[in-house]
Amino acid sequence: MRRLIVIAALLASYPVLLAAALWPAPLVFGAAALVSYAAEYAAPRLARRPLELLGQAHLGVTVRFAARETAALLLVARAAGPDSAWFVALAVSMFGVHGMRALHTGLALRLRQTLARMPVTTRNLDVSALRIPKLPPGWLGDPRGLRFLYLDALPVLGAVWGAVAACCGAALALALGAAGALALLPYVRRTRPLTDRVRVLEVVGAQVAAYRPEVILYFSGATAAAYQARMWLPVLERIDRRAIVVLRERGMARHLEPSSLPMVCIPSSADLMSFRALSSAKLCLYVSNVGRNVHMLRIPTLRSAFLNHGDSDKEASFNPFSRVYDEVWVAGPAGRDRYRKAKVGVRDECVHEVGRPQLQGISTEGPGLPYRTVLYAPTWEGWNDDLFHTSLMTMGPRIVRALLEHDPPLRVIYKPHPLTGHRDKAALRAHRRIAAMIEKAELAKSKARHPSRAEAPATYVRHLVVTGPEPHLYACFNQCDLLISDISSVVADFLASEKPYAVTNVAGLPEHAFHERYPSTEAGVLLGEDLAGLAEFLDGEDTLARARVKLRSYLLGPEYPDALTRFNAAVERVFAES
Question: Is residue 362 over pLDDT 80?
Answer without folding.
Answer: yes
